[in-house]
From TrEMBL:
Pathway: Isoprenoid biosynthesis; isopentenyl diphosphate biosynthesis via DXP pathway; isopentenyl diphosphate from 1-deoxy-D-xylulose 5-phosphate: step 1/6. It is an enzyme of class 1 (oxidoreductase). InterPro entries: DXP_reductoisomerase, DXP_reductoisomerase_C, DXP_reductoisomerase_N, DXPR_C, DXPR_C_sf, NAD(P)-bd_dom_sf. Mn(2+) binds at residues 153, 155, 224. This is 1-deoxy-D-xylulose 5-phosphate reductoisomerase. The gene is dxr. Its cofactor is Mg(2+); Mn(2+). Residues 264-385 form the DXP reductoisomerase C-terminal domain.
Length: 398
């Protein structure tokens, strides 16, 4: 039986809700028992309160400081303490637990992931942006505190499961699979008028809005390349990307002797979350299973870098190192949200990232002093300022 005291940061989102659903099912089957210390959400107070009533955490936190009274009202009659604002989210993340799920979206998840890393808990990391911004220092911080970082992103979970951590020299390269997103076969001429509704309609995965846009531009695979480089200490030129539209093979590790190990499963985030929750054990739950005869065949193709330039921009940022990955992340996040707000054309998302990276590198943007989290946050703020002015310029020109 798996027993864990857990906190879920970003519990109201897609990964956060999947985490609680998995916990529910594992408990119902008698495979696990959980106590919840903290749940944090954003502006969906109703969902947060519903989760808090089910799990009875010590504290439920909304990141929106203006919604404290609303949350208190929604929790009336329970023993759950209500808190609000960014500092309260970080405080929740700092509480001692066995396991913490970091599933806030974007650089907004950085401070809380950084705080959780220092508690000695197992850090189940869905928030790839914090790893992209802080790099290996986030992993070092977890290790120094006596904890362990376990990736939740399905590709990295796959690699984690087949990677020989005791002998990394046995690995020739990592191969990340990509679904190709909703526009895998869309001719460039037709990509001009892509709407947010079209972009968030992912063929295989049901996810939050920002990662769905990232998936459509393939910036997500770019972020994941950087994430993989830090997690598995692998240089950019030993990380390949292959498009695999069925999303059944979640990634592969090629060994030096020519053998390649892959991890497979249905496209359901609860499986990599389950892996992170029980590792090195395995937790039984009514997981969806593969039906290979039904699938029939798996297909692969090379990514089209001309239609999806974000992938190559991420590789350049990774090779440049220093502040470049954090700049890539900030510019991409600004551009993705501007696109969702209908203030930027789909094809201009990558253009904003390219231009921001160029300007930041010309200006010699580097990490300042202080810890990696503060340094990354200053770079993030500066890169957002640059990206914001580029986005405004494009809007004025349109
Ligand atoms: P989502 O948008 O569905 O949920 C995000 C969560 O973060 C919500 O609880 C929201 O309230 C909270 N949040 C948003 N802004 C916040 C802020 N400023 N401060 C504090 N909390 C805030 O996103 P998601 O799809 O669940 O993705 C979460 C993370 O997991 C992302 O980093 C994403 O890249 C990663 N991820 C997601 C999936 C997936 O299948 N959804 C797969 C792999 C990795
Ligand atoms: Mg992924």
């Amino acid at each position: 039986m798996i027993r864990r005291r857990v906190s879920v940061l970003g519990s109201t989102g897609s990964v956060g809700s999947s985490t609680l659903d998995l916990m529910d099912q594992a408990e119902a089957g008698g495979a696990a028992a959980f106590e919840v210390e903290a749940l944090t959400g954003g502006s969906n107070i109703a969902r947060l309160a519903e989760q808090a009533r089910r799990w009875k955490p010590r504290v439920a936190v909304t990141a929106d400081a203006a919604r404290l009274d609303e949350l208190r009202d929604a929790l009336a009659g329970t023993d759950v303490a209500a808190a609000a604002g960014e500092a309260a989210v970080v405080e929740a993340a700092s509480r001692p637990v066995d396991w913490v799920m970091a599933s806030i979206v974007g650089a907004a998840g950085l401070k809380s992931a950084w705080a959780a890393a220092d508690t000695g808990a197992t850090l189940a990391l869905a928030n790839k942006e914090s790893l992209v911004c802080c790099g290996a220092t986030l992993i070092e911080r977890v290790n120094r505190a006596g904890g362990r970082l376990i990736p939740v992103d399905s590709e990295h979970s796959a690699i984690f499961q087949v990677f020989p951590a005791e002998a990394p020299e046995r690995v020739a390269k990592l191969v990340l699979t990509a679904s190709g997103g909703p526009f895998r076969q869309t001719p460039r001429a037709q990509m001009v008028g892509i709407t947010p509704e079209q972009a968030v309609a992912h063929p295989n995965w049901s996810m939050g809005a920002k990662i769905s846009v990232d998936s459509a531009t393939m910036a997500n695979k770019g972020l994941e390349m950087i994430e993989a480089a830090y997690l598995f200490a692998m240089p950019a030129d030993r990380i390949d990307v292959v498009v695999h539209p069925e999303s059944i093979i979640h990634s592969l590790v090629e060994y030096v002797d020519g053998s390649t190990l892959a991890q497979m499963g249905p496209p359901d985030m609860r499986t990599p979350i389950a892996c992170a929750l029980a590792w090195p054990d395995r937790i039984a739950w009514p997981a969806p299973k593969l039906d290979l005869p039904e699938l029939g065949r798996l297909t692969f193709e090379a990514p089209d870098l001309a239609r999806f330039p974000a992938l190559d921009l991420a590789r350049q940022a990774l090779k440049a190192g220093g502040a470049a990955p954090a700049v890539f992340n900030a510019a991409n996040e600004m551009a993705a949200f501007a696109f969702l707000d209908r203030k930027l054309a789909f094809l201009n998302i990558a253009a904003v990232v390219a231009e921001t990276l160029e300007r930041a590198m010309k200006a010699g943007m580097v990490f300042g002093s202080g810890d990696a989290c503060s340094a990354a946050l200053s770079v993030d703020a500066e890169a957002r300022r640059i990206a914001g002015s580029i986005i405004a310029g494009l809007a004025n020109a349109a």
